[in-house]
Write a structure and sequence with these properties.
Blueprint (H helix, E strand, L loop, with lengths): L14 H6 L12 H16 L3 H22 L2 H24 L9 H28 L8 H4 L11 H42 L1 H34 L1 H11 L7 H5 L3 E6 L5 E2 L2 E2 L4 E5 L7 E4 L18 E4 L5 E3 H10 L23
Antiparallel strand pairs: 1-4, 1-6, 2-3, 4-5, 6-7
Helix pairs in contact: 2-3, 2-8, 4-5, 4-8, 5-7, 5-8, 7-8, 8-9, 9-11
Organism: Malus baccata (Siberian crab apple)
Keywords: Membrane, Metal-binding, Transferase, Transmembrane, Transmembrane helix, Ubl conjugation pathway, Zinc, Zinc-finger
Main location: membrane
């Protein structure tokens, strides 16, 4: 994960930021998933009785989705769609202005339309400038490898000049977003204040302004709704989300060989009268390592006899995978995750970069 300059604008944005940037169709997707996850955790955590490890897994999965989402929104197809979308606004705006020359609105709606078009043009300039700076720095050309490589800004050509240029672009975009919000309020007031009289005197300008205003509101609603739905899906249907990512994204995490090197265990339940290694255990079950001659049973407490990814209790005979950080999950659940991201979904321990024993298992 990135540990230096924030080059993923999506991470850390609030819903308020998204409302101010509503016209950025593809550059900024739904509000941050981790924020929606925390809200959903507070609202339904007691009903669902999610344990803290399961919640941490879901918050880390939401973070992974955010970073991949940020990469997708900065990819060339997304940027092209964004530019085309804003270009449509500019063309439609100028066309209606040309067709409504003879209209005499009661309020300065022409000035508002011209201002709206200029804001679109400024946004397009910021998008192009940011894209070329990232391309010159090597970011985006290396695919999604940068998401999981753990490289710092230097891996992106992160000179101080790049950071300064990015900061200037961000400040310009923030100023453009703030002024866009103010301009939207002004347009809403003029349309509402003009009412029927404005519709009668200048119908083309009236409907153009209404269309721009309605689109912005609709886009805000879609963004917030999408964020909430994805947050709920991550919380309740995480295995499905992982399966979708496994199928549609680059598998730039661990390879099959690296995953197969991790120990695999078979779970067995323990009744009250059973013994493990000659001693009565007050545990839910035990893990027996597969593919080894010296089979040793490892007891598991009742609280830990559950996969934090799918929230299912371990069934007798279930195959488990244990990571170097000692966290264990269903093989079918964790193997797909490790193909996407070679870190423990609970504590973020990187299985490809072993650390000291004192670091393992720290959250």
């Amino acid at each position: 994960m990135m540990n230096s300059v924030d080059i993923h604008p999506l991470i850390g944005y609030s819903i308020g930021d998204e409302l101010l940037q509503s016209r950025r169709l593809m550059r900024h997707g739904p509000p941050p998933l981790r924020g929606a996850m925390r809200l959903f955790r507070r609202a339904s955590g007691r009903r669902m009785r999610l344990r803290d490890p399961s919640v941490r897994v879901r918050e880390n999965a939401a973070e992974e989705l955010e970073e991949r989402q940020s990469f997708w929104f900065h990819s060339k197809p997304a940027i092209i769609l964004d530019l085309l979308w804003n270009l449509v606004f500019v063309i439609v705006g100028f066309t209606v202005l040309g067709l409504s020359v003879e209209e005499k609105p009661l309020v300065p709606m022409r000035i508002w339309v011209v201002g709206y078009i200029l804001l679109c043009v400024v946004h397009v300039g910021c998008v192009v400038a940011a894209y070329w700076r990232r391309r010159e720095a090597g970011w985006g050309s290396g695919g999604s490898e940068s998401l999981v490589s753990g490289s710092n800004v230097g891996g992106y050509g992160g000179e101080h000049g790049l950071a300064d240029d990015t900061s200037i672009t961000k400040n310009l975009e923030s100023a453009n977003s703030m002024f866009s919000f103010i301009w939207w309020v002004i347009g809403f007031y003029w349309v509402l204040n003009g009412g029927q009289a404005l519709l009668s005197s200048s119908p083309r300008l009236y409907w153009l302004c209404v269309s721009f205003l309605v689109f912005d509101v609709a886009f805000i609603i879609v963004c917030v709704a999408a964020s909430c739905l994805v947050g709920i899906a991550v919380c309740c249907f995480l295995p499905c989300i992982i399966a979708i990512l496994y199928a549609v994204t680059d598998q730039d995490g661990a390879t099959d060989e690296e995953i197969d090197r991790l120990p695999k265990f078979k779970f067995g339940r323990v009744s009250n009268s059973e013994k493990v290694n000659g001693e009565v255990q007050a545990s839910e079950g035990f893990m027996t390592e597969c593919d080894t001659n010296a089979q040793t049973d490892h007891p598991i407490s009742q609280a830990d006899a559950e996969c934090c990814i799918c929230l299912s209790v371990y069934e007798n005979g279930a195959e488990l995978r244990q990571l170097p950080c000692q966290h264990h999950f269903h093989c079918t659940c964790i193997d797909k995750w490790l193909h996407i991201n070679a870190t423990c979904p609970m504590c973020k321990f990187n299985i490809l970069r072993p650390r000291g024993r004192h670091e393992i298992g720290q959250v």
